[in-house]
Design a protein that fits this description.
908 residues, alpha+beta, Immunoglobulin-like, Neutral Protease, domain 2, 5-stranded mixed β-sheet, binds ligand BES, binds zinc ion
Amino acid sequence: MATPSAWNKVSPPRPRLSGASFHREGTDLKASPGAPAPAGGSAAQFRGQARLPRFATPRRYELRLRPDLVACTFTGSVAIAVVVSAPTRFLVLNAADLSVNRASIRFQSLAPTEVVFFKDDDVLVFGFSKQLPLGEGVLQMDYNGTLNDQMRGFYRSKYQYKGKERNMAVTQFESVDARRCFPCWDEPAFKAKFKLTVEVPSDLVALSNMPVANSTFAGPIKTVSFRESPLMSTYLLAVVVGLFDYVEGMTSKGTRVRVYTQIGKSNQGKFALDVAVKSLDLYKDYFDTAYPLPKLDMIAIPDFSAGAMENYGLVTYREVALLFDDKSSSESSKQNIAITVAHELAHQWFGNLVTMEWWTHLWLNEGFATWMSHLAVDSFFPQWNIWTQFLDGTTTALKLDALSESHPIEVEIHHASEVDQIFDAISYEKGASVIRMLQSYLGAERFQKALASYMKKFAYSNAKTEDLWAVLEKETGEPVKDLMTTWTKQKGYPVINAKIKGNDMEIEQAQFLSDGSSGPGTWIVPITSGCGYDTQKKFLLKLKRDKMVIPSQCSDRKKGGNFWTKLNINGTGFYRVKYDDELAAALLNALEAKKLSLMDRIGVVDDSHALSMARQQTMASLLRLLYAYRGETDYSVLSHVNSVTVSVARISVDATPSLAGDIKQLLIKILLPTAEKLGWDPKKGESHLDAMLRPLLLTALVQLGHGKTINEGIRRFNIFLRDRNTPLLPPDTRKTAYLSVMQNVSSSNRSGYDALRKVYRESAEGEERLNVLGILPSCRDKGIVLESLNFIFTDEVRNQDAYILLRGVQIEAREIAWNWLKENWERISKIFSTSSLLGDFVKTVVPLFTSNEKAAEISKFFATRTKPGFERTLKQSLENIRIGARWIEGIRSEPKLAQTVRELLGKP
Ligand code: BES
Ligand code: ZN
């Protein structure tokens, strides 16, 4: 296939540049961003810097790439127009895992006299014998690299075509991996224009951010050159080369949108295409700014480390995050696709057109895209109640942010290796939640207007968090900066303690931490309260303590028993509320009387769970509250109730083994009525939410050991084995049936497990397979658990999917999984060298434990094995263990727990 061609002047591969092969002496001078470059000094001054110096900045890249899809290598040549703005004899940029041909390096006609590579920092320094002329010059070099298997930089992904395995070449540059494809100024603020050319086998499709300008064919090779891009950041550049089909649509403004899939699967791209076309139209109106590029392509990639990536004009996705198949995809996967597409397309404005100035402001990208995706999906599918589902994210963030090992939304980044781990619930979900809080404080219309002017002001450029506050403040006249700084620059959040004092309500804020302690933080808190939804009050709590007058409608409590009040109406604020006994009892009555909105039903149960875990409230009172949710029929509310029941069932196994059975019975009693109403079979014309609720409840019942549900799952699975198209087991409930099957599996009775492996093997890729994968280790039998964990190391499981399997490990199998993880750590850390995937191993196994001794053991094991990429994840997981241990102590000392459980179960 690929034959050498004229442009390629790269000499035979040389040993990789490495720190060891160049001199590194000299002292570390601090060259902070923006500081003028010293004319002299040595290259060593550029080691260990968080950011590149700014005395020379790129304007335009001309990049040629020539991937060899058989040898899995590539060659490249780059010409970078650089502006030298201060006297220097150095050029300092990023590179990683590339061999640069030293003889090819030129700046104008100058060859460097010194080439130093700081491997730990991915920094490449060219030193010249004299000062560089001020103004624009061109830096040129040739290099080569490997199409790696790590799903980052320029990598290869595998797919099947006509029964044969083929390779495709794909890029994934966010956060700091463009440098693995070409030497560049790999920071978001160094925006430049890109003119890309690729040489690829003639029969393949080559895609990039911009449309093709022209293609020329020379035998088996074609040269495809793309149009020059507008100013953009390096992490958004993308190239994909392989065999694809597509479906196409058009926005109302005439922007061409395509969804590329593997050959023969283009039908599965139609749903995402529809969402994409609508999203582009919606965002254009919302931001009052046109989609900035001439086309948008979206493409499914078989090996993909994230869920999706917003590359400018060429958005890449995991297959399950883009492809929808009427026959085999579930309702929840449909929703996931809609949210993912809407999220990535929001980035085309928030992120791509206006980009964060540095990774500290990552949340401006991810928090906003998360929030915007809900806004868009709510407008396309109002019946999905997506804003109620949004609280899933808020509560996830509230849980993470109640750890002392959390971090502020705006987080300092000292080194590139720290960036990956801030793609977490703080940047995404807390970010999105504080945006919702701010929007609800300012009002939707004012908020939108201000965002549109922010977009215009910073288009094709970069912004910091404070730039956004300044625009919002100017447009609305509200103290946005003071308010929001308390939420973005300090970690954590408050719990508001509410007490009745005469006709007033006293409120006091204190930082909430799950370990029961109280942190030092204080916030400016937008308080809302009401007794019913037409009596809302709003004000900003700026002090530690304040008083609210209870509206007269609410204060007639002496006259009758109907008084109640709820703070943080609809959970728009990022805080929790703890009520005094009188308020709590009144709220419970209101809940029983069905007076609370969906969102408030979620807030009440989630706060109560968190307070119980922090031992600010008893387990008995949590169970009483949960009991008030029996008969609840809403998907979102029950999904939160279910998370709480899972947590309660888990902790009771360790805390009160003798009571664990009864607690499970109680939880079953709460969930069963609605599960029975829904049954296993979809009803004609039923809602999206009911279709998602069914598997949620049935799965919960199976997990709680409900015999009847388990047997029905097994019965339906056996029918499914004989007839894969049986209406008795449609996509939505398959996972529940698989889980039922695993309940009876053991080494001596492994037929169910073997049948599931067979289903895995025989399913096409996609959701179908992943459903099985997530279930395989879900049993207590050591042999089976180990066999399924080792499945990760086989060719049958893509590395991208390992975490799905890990998530299936049950609490009863935690020792087996932990021993397996220890024994295989070296191997795992080699294969999953990208930090986020490695973090998944820690995140899924470690928090299954609840004893301080185990925390100490795990901490000791990792003492010599941590990497910057998952350090924080590990600390958070260990903190969660200790919180569990403390919770257990509290539960054990509760005198009335057993009595409460019996009472609620109706047992004498
Ligand atoms: N920018 C991210 C992709 C990403 C994540 C790149 C982590 C590098 C590191 C993208 O916009 C994103 O957020 N994707 C989400 C999906 C989304 C629907 C929340 C993901 O990958 O999970
Ligand atoms: Zn994103």
